[in-house]
Amino acid sequence: MRPIPVPLQPMAQPVAAVPPAEHQPAFTPPPPPVHEHIPEPVQEPEPEGTPDFDVNRLTPEEQELHRRANRVAKVSMQDIKMLRPDQVRLGRENKDICVRLKDDIEKAHREYDRRFKPIMDHPVDYFYRWMVEILAEGDAGALGEYPYAVPARQH
User: Which residues, other chains included, contact 116 with Cβ-Cβ below 8 Å and sequence gap of 6+?
Assistant: First the structure.
């Protein structure tokens, strides 16, 4: 008696051939973890003509006043730009921002002066700096005549 041959069935599916390396997608590393970034305060360069002035050498109270004065001046100029965009644009074009926006600028400057009088004799003028940066988009000439004390810092 002879055994009856039984056809063999494969137990697993055949393994597909691995495609060549040029057809495989490149390894993409996972994105970096998202961490809240709190920026370090930016140390600004020494203003010209006042190499001995350093905000970091002031008392903590004066340093805080400088920080707040910088912020208040910036927000004031952003507000003017937001509330009077057409006048700001025309002021830049005609190089007469200080004349054209006189009322808004004077109101902001009075408040700035009142709040930061203790540091007004320091050789920094955040108000001027942000006027140039925000309202004049970096062109100090677009301000026209700056009606306040000669600015200590011109950027």
Answer: 65, 68, 69, 72
